[in-house]
Every structure is written in C-alpha cells, then in structure tokens.
Write a structure and sequence with these properties.
The protein is an alpha/beta fold. It is built from 14 helices and 21 strands. The strands form six sheets. Strands 12-7-1-2-3-20 form a six-stranded mixed beta sheet. Helix 1 crosses helix 3, helix 6 packs across helix 7 and helix 13 packs antiparallel against helix 14. The longest helix is centred in the C-terminal third of the chain and has 27 residues.
Length: 484
Amino acid sequence: MAAKDFIVAIELGSSKMTGIAGKKNLDGSISVLAVVKEDSSSFIRNGIVYNINQTVQCISNIVRKLSSSLKSEIARVYVGVGGQSIRSVKNVVVKELPGGAIVSQEMVNELMDKNRSMTYQDSEILDVAPQEYKVDNQLQIDPVGIQCSRLEGNFLNIIWRNTFYRNLNQCFDTAEVAIAEMYLAPLALADSVLTDAEKRSGCVLVDLGADTTTVSVYYKNKLRHMAVIPLGGDNITKDIASLQMDEAAAEKMKLKYGCAYTENTDIDNTLTYPIDAERSVEARKFIEIVEGRLQEIIENVWYQVPSEYTDRLLGGIILTGGGSNMKDIDKAFRNHTHIEKIRVAKFVTQVIKSSNPDINDHNGMMNTILGLLSKGDMNCAGEETPENTDLFSADKPAKPAQTTADLHPTPRTAGQISPGVVPTAAEKEKAEEQRRKAAEAAALQEGNAGEDGETEEGDGKKGVKSRMSRFKRWMDQFLKEPDE
C-alpha cells in the first residue's frame, strides 16, 4: 500500500549520500519507512560538491529508489548541508538609544536584520545563532522591556561559500527535486544527540566523519562556535595504505586492528598484523601510524574550542559519527584534552522504530540523517505511484492497454469513424443513421436562422434547400463506396 504521509531527508556526505523516509507518530516516535545509500566519494569531497552531473544522478537515484519503496511520488525533500566550506563568525551590532529608551521587539529585530545584511567575501550567511544581548553593561538573553542607552547584539553567523550554495541548488534543480528546507547538518545532529543538560552546562560535540571532522561548542544552551576540520577517518586509511596496499585493504585493517590509544607497555614488539598472504606489518608500526594521525585530529579539535570555554565544559566531550567506533576513542580524547567526561553518542535521543540493520546497529553513522528526519514537519508525499511502475528500470513505466478513444483523444463529430479503423456493415449503418440525424438537426437549426435573415445564400428556404442538396450528394457518394 502506498504511503501518503511521510517526511524525506537527504544528507550529502563525503563518503556516501543517504536518503531516508519516515513518519512521525502520535506518541512522538519516528517510524523509518525506507533508507537508501549511494557512494559519493567520487563527486563530493570534504562535504563540497565537485562533480555536478554525478551529484545530480545520485540525487535522482535516491529519490527514485525511495519512491519505489514508498509506492508514492516524492514532492519535496529536506536537505542537510555541512562540509569544509561552513564556518562560524562572530558579529556585534550596536544601537544607541538616546534618552534612555525602553527596548522594544522592533529594536531587537532591527539588530537582527542589520546582522543578516552583513556581507562576507565569497560567502553568505546560512544560519544565525543569537548570543546574549548587552544592555548597557549587563548581559541579557531577552532585552525587551529594559530601559537603557546602548543596546548591543551579539551574533554567531554560520557562513558557507557561494559556489557551494550555487552548485547545490543547481544539482537539485537539474534533478527536478524540490527542496522543502535546507538544514545545517551539525545543528540537526546536535539537537538529536545532545541533552539539554549538556548544552546548558557546556560541551563539545565532535562528529568524526570520513573526510571532515565537525566541532560544535555549546554553553548555556547557545551554540558558541562551529568549525569543520578537513581531516577524518579516510586520512588514517590513506596513512595505512602507505604500507604499499590499496585503500580497500587499508580500510579493512583499520576496522579490524585499529585502536585509538594503546599504552606503550601494552604493545607486543613481536606481534605482526597480516597485510596479505605473503606480507605483514609490525604491530608497533601499525599502531604508530593510526595513533599519529588520530592525535593530529584530536589536537585540531581541541584547538577549535575557544579558550573562554575550555574550563566551562561541565558536559564534557560528546563523540559521534563513524570515527567514534574506533576502539578506545574516548581514552584518546581524554589523554590529549584532559577532559574526564567523554561520551560516545551511538544513537539519537528520539525513539526510532525501524527494521533497517544500518539504523539498528546503533553505531553513530546514521545519527545525522535521523536528526534531519526529526527536524522535518512538512508532508513530502506526492502522487501515488502505479503498482506496475518499476522505478529502478531505465525503461518507461508500463501503460495500460490503449483503447480507440486513447489513440484518438480529440473530439469527433457524430458518426465519425476513427482513421485507420475499418467499419463493419453494422457500424456503417449506424454511422449513416447518426450522420442523417446530425444533418437534419443542422438543417433545421440553419433553417430557423434563415427565417431571421441569417442565411448563407438567398432567403431562408433557398438556403436550407441548397444545404440539403449538398448533403444528399454527399450521402450518395458515401453509399456508393464498396464495403471492405
């Protein structure tokens, strides 16, 4: 049975593009109806679209496969964006209030509009995270109703490169897929994996992806900083591949033997890891390669945390994404940042009902797309897809058997036989009767018109007689035609 009410979200990741369809239930849970994944490593790098044609094809494939599973057309989709082109910039807007005026909502809106009008070279504002307002010398979350002479608005603008924005919109336009709304993927992820207590007391959310690592700093329920580091799990894989193996084999070794932190005394100098049937690598060398690159990632993450918040992270560090599955990843972060409270977010806080193994594995790799799904609130369903339509086939959908009316949809006059169809004797007799009745009705109507002076030739009686004569000649010609 076709689904008639669902939400569709698409995440453009560096290693894979994921599409998901789900339905929100009355009890607050979300039922996942379909999940589709497509490899995107060849045309999306560091979260940026590099090959428009391949991206368009991938988007079309995802939408087509989801439509087939749902047995319904998809009218619109929610899109999650992230990647290296996104960063946060602080901005301060000041308004002087002579005479000690009382702050109104219009004044606050004016500050927000002025901030939105800020221009950045080759970039534009994607989203804004308002910070506190400074009313004279005091910080206020809501300044409306307070009397002051100087109002200062602090904003955190999240910007992205114009080229990324244009390419992304071009891809969806070319694929003929309507965008319901674009969400910043790190914000959707944070809303799904962080608790209110963590946001309030201060925390760092680290999304360890394939090509990039996203860092989001929260304090007092506000986003304070966001940065995307162009380093991820693929960098570790490439380092392992330097041991003269292809990246596929290096990825398997990383997943099987990779460990984020190992005490020096626990390393067995006689132990080796097999590369293939003939070669192997020393365990110590393998560990040094993995931990060396991972340490670089952790140090870059910690560098992105503003100094004024390093001592206020009572909520600790929350790790998620595919890279968070590496063994002892929490120990590695604890050792380098000296933050004792480390949590690995394997799943979102919402109640998800699904039979899909990728979701039920609870490995953190589906957290972002589930966060995007939970943000959607608009029905994305279109028209119902016919049962015999195969959306995976390159051929056009099968059509029902055509009738004569389907072949000739244009209106026909009474008694007219469709071109290419040979009439039987009964059909010919019936057609003749219909023509006769139509001609008599037309003659009567024109005769009445002739009496009013609206005749083709002469008065009304002569006009009717002339037309009847033409009709008689036409009928004689028709009756002389041999039966087929």
